[in-house]
Amino acid sequence: MENVLCSIEGETAYIQFNRPKSMNALNTELMKEFYSCIKDISGNGDVKMVVLSGSGSVFSAGGDIKEMLSEADEEQFNSIMDLISDITLAFYSMPKLTIAAIHGAAAGLGLSIALAADYVMCETDSKVAMNFIGIGLIPDGGGHFMLERRLGPVKAKKVIWDGKVMSGTEAAEMGLADRAVASGAMQEEVAYLIEELSQKPLQAMIKTKKIMADLNRPQLIKTLELEKHGQLKMRETNDHQEGIKAFLEKRKPVFNK
Predict the structure, then answer these.
(1) Listed residue (72, 2, 79, 4) closest to 38, CA to CA
(2) What's this model's pTM, rounded to 2 decimal places?
(3) Which residue would you say has higher pLDDT here, 246 or 146?
(4) How would you classify the pairing of strands 166-167 and 12-17?
(5) Please, what sign has the CA dihedral across residues 88, 91, 92, 95?
(6) Is it the case that residue 154 has pLDDT exceeding 80?
(7) What are the DSSP calls for the chain, one per residue?
(8) What is the pLDDT of residues 189-239, one digit of tens each?
(9) 59: burial class by Cβ within 10 Å (0-12, 13-18, 19+)?
(10) What distances in angstroms separate CA 231 from CA 47, 159, 193, 240, one per listed residue?
């Protein structure tokens, strides 16, 4: 695999998005490799913990805008949305303790995936944004489910509607992230958390996670279905076309009143 790096050290697996020149934007090839990696690790009984991170300067800038622009075909779009749903379900319900280690930026779909982890860690100066609204879209990758789970429905709606960029510190203060760590200290903090968790009865913790995931699975599946159909509708709107145009022209969009 080229777009995702996977390695195992003892009881811990490390998964890293590896498109640094594209700010780890999630294109189809990366997502296919990521899904394959998740499935392989899920079946490895020796692995108890998983760390997800990004190579280069950021965690992930979100979905690949260039690829999004080329996907005018509805069938192709549905296929990609199905892949996103498969990834979300697989990562959320992995029979492992998962850690998302955010540095640089985590936006859009990249943030949705990170929020599916059991532990979300951000560097204090990270830039975190559920910024679909800026291009006239709605969160996908289970973003609605993940935000409601962490913030409750009222705050979740505000985060989605505002679409503002938050620092890692702000994300931790509002409960979006579990912990904010000093800039440049992520690797050490993740190692510390792994050491802390390794002293606990991991099988019991994983069993609790599995029970919770099984209870929440129907709601997550329904959310992913609603996001898929809703996103298709939003892609057809003038607001989305204006949002994309403004993004490419690096200006503020002018949406319909």
Answers:
(1) 4
(2) 0.95
(3) 146
(4) unpaired
(5) positive
(6) yes
(7) --SEEEEEETTEEEEEE--GGGTT-B-HHHHHHHHHHHHHHHT-TT--EEEEEESTT-SB--B-HHHHHH---HHHHHHHHHHHHHHHHHHHT-SSEEEEEE-SEEEHHHHHHHTTSSEEEEETT-EEE--GGGGT----TTHHHHHHHHH-HHHHHHHHHH---EEHHHHHHHTSSSEEE-TT-HHHHHHHHHHHHHTS-HHHHHHHHHHHHHHHHHHHHHHHHHHHHHHHHHHTSHHHHHHHHHHHHTS------
(8) 999 999 999 999 999 999 999 999 999 999 999 999 999 999 999 999 999
(9) buried
(10) 35, 18, 36, 10
Q: Which two tokens stand for residue 218?
A: 């129907």
